[in-house]
Design goal:
- It is a single chain.
- With about 350 residues, the protein is α+β, with helices and mostly antiparallel strands.
- The chain has two domains: about 210 residues, 3-Layer(aba) Sandwich (L-fuculose-1-phosphate Aldolase); about 90 residues, Transcription Termination Factor Rho, Rna-binding Domain, Chain A, Domain 1, CATH 1.10.720.
- It contains ten helices and nine strands.
- The chain has a nine-stranded mixed β-sheet with strand order 4-3-2-1-5-9-8-7-6, sandwiched between helices.
- Helix 2 runs parallel beside helix 4, helix 3 packs across helix 5 and helix 6 runs antiparallel to helix 9.
- The longest helix is centred in the middle third of the chain and has 23 residues.
- One of its GO terms (biological process) is L-methionine salvage from methylthioadenosine.
- Keywords: Amino-acid biosynthesis, Cytoplasm, Lyase, Metal-binding, Methionine biosynthesis, Zinc.
- This is Class II aldolase/adducin N-terminal domain-containing protein.
Length: about 350
Amino acid sequence: MSDKDLETKKLICELCRQFFEAGWVTGTGGSISIRNDDRIFMTPSGVQKERIQPDEVFTVNIKGEVVDTPAQKLGGRVPKLSDCAPLFLHAYQQRNAGAVLHSHSACCNIVTSLFEGQTEFTISHQEMIKGIAGYGYFDTLRIPIIENTAWEHELADSLGEAIANNPRACAVLVRRHGMYVWGNTWEEAKRHGECLHYLFDIAIRMKQLGMDFNAPPRPLPSAAVGGTASGYKHILLDIEGTTTPITFVHDTLFPYAAANVGAFLLSTWSSVATSAIVAQLQQLARDDVIAGTATAAGFAQSDLQAADSSVCIAAATEYVIALIKADRKVGPLKALQGLI
């Protein structure tokens, strides 16, 4: 074995440990392969990737024929080439890849469920897209998705078709399974894998927050004639704690509304707006009576249609003042205070 081949096998073992720590190759899942000239070095099947040693790595040629089988270790199982081998070969043969990785990371699995019934993952306007060869920040990155099968090797044909039909892709997602990713060198394949895992995580988190990970950021408003420097013509602020001290509402506005509610009701009693608010207030008073609030009884029983409205207005005024003193957070009261 040449020094270069040995170093490649050692590198595969090192990457396996790194990818295990990252959650890509846990539970014996996932696989790594690196090419040296006409030889491809692949991890075996069904082994703990974080414990793999150089003498356990297979060597195959570009046709997928095994040219070096690891020796069976004392008390160990017969070495078996990774089930990913026929899938890896598609990337080597179609793209002349220098390395191909297979990840079982949770984000690779989950992200495919965000695209149920669809054949590709897409994301745009993310800085890490620039880590994918041939893509920039403003581009829409597209990663094909193929459907999973019961056995790994059964994915080979559909993965080969996905690679052929998506010449810009550097990876293929397998629904509820994982991802195959490659590059011209092992460094590029690793970079592609790291960037894609990041982007999948971003997509999942943005989806959870109700954000569209394919939409560009909302632009800042431009300056408008007659408006503010930011382009807005009007700004609506909550006065409490914004334009005035937070005590202003209780110390000034509430007393003002209580002192003027009677006069306001008397002058606007027959208006459409006041009539609607009064009807809502009376329903609230009836609910309060049922709940045991004695101060609501007079207004709850008032006849809003009586010819002499003075009695009803007095009862309504008394009820509104009681609501203000109790600092009730109810819609009809807020609406009436706003009108006053």
